[in-house]
Amino acid sequence: IWLPVGVVLGLAIAAGLLMYIRSRSSLVGQLRYAIRRRQLQVHYQPIVDLATRRCIGAEALVRWPQARDVMVRPDVFVPLAEDNQLIQPLTDLVLDLVCKDMATLLQLRSDLYVSINLAAIDLSTDRFCAVLKRTLAACSIEPQRIAIEATERGFMHAQTAVGIIQQLRQMGHRVLIDDFGTGYSGLSYLQTFQVDVLKIDKSFIDTVGTEAATASVAPHIVEIGHSLHLKMIAEGVESEAQAAWLVAHGVQSGQGWLFGKPMPAQAFLDYLNNERQRTRHV
Ligand code: C2E
Ligand code: MG
Ligand code: MG
Ligand code: MG
């Protein structure tokens, strides 16, 4: 009788081991493990006032150093996280990492804000609002210092998104509409509820300041922002010509390689320090 029991037990253990190895070797398994072990990192990309070039904030962009020298792009692993119930732990981890960095960042520049990207799933329940409140209270960071980026896609997929966004604003957070103009949701939501900032998608900024600009929809996107009295941030600004066009069209803020690429917290601190020196010498 013990022999079959032993065989069954042995098989079960082998199967379990195999499943464990397989889960660890698949990309999803590795991502789950990396989140659990807090191996993700956050990089910061400056958001500047276009007229003065002064840094007013930064966007937190998640990074996954998967192996030595290999960074998996968020375009790849964020959708993977969304499809595998990993987005909530990912968002929580990013928020946590940002709050840790915030302590030093705010010592240098107390008026700075950092914006965090939310996924549609984060906008589907008020769970994130509770997490945010609790996390900020624990490290004594004011809600004004954390902005929230939501895409139009987020509103389409979550009935509750409008309520969540209103709640976030009532809590004192700025709400930024990310990739503005690329969604298929129509613009009616802008009349239904309040947001603070439109982030004009890079695809519209690419053509401004060039010959192709006359055929571009960029001026119309900017016009929408003005008529709704919303602040705008241009994404993906890479050239002086683009910056000049944006200033001429009344866009206040910009983000892009012209001002700085996404960088680790320490490099961002150096960036802010250098900026302080630059302005002191003027
Ligand atoms: P996004 O939120 O629209 O972020 C802007 C992306 O444009 C970033 O790509 C940034 O590195 C890139 N970028 C900024 N300026 C320039 C420029 O001048 N030229 C070019 N070529 N690219 C520029 P990244 O870091 O690869 O992130 C891609 C997307 O992944 C983000 O788009 C966002 O949708 C998502 N993502 C990033 N971090 C998070 C996160 O913590 N949570 C969630 N849910 N999504 C995130
Ligand atoms: Mg964003
Ligand atoms: Mg964006
Ligand atoms: Mg984008």
Automatic annotation (TrEMBL):
GO terms for molecular function: cyclic-guanylate-specific phosphodiesterase activity. It catalyses: 3',3'-c-di-GMP + H2O = 5'-phosphoguanylyl(3'->5')guanosine + H(+). The chain crosses the membrane at residues 1-21. Residues 24-276 form the EAL domain. Its EC number is 3.1.4.52. It is a multi-pass membrane protein. Keywords: c-di-GMP, Cell membrane, Hydrolase, Membrane, Transmembrane, Transmembrane helix. It is found in: Cell membrane. GO terms for cellular component: plasma membrane. This is cyclic-guanylate-specific phosphodiesterase.
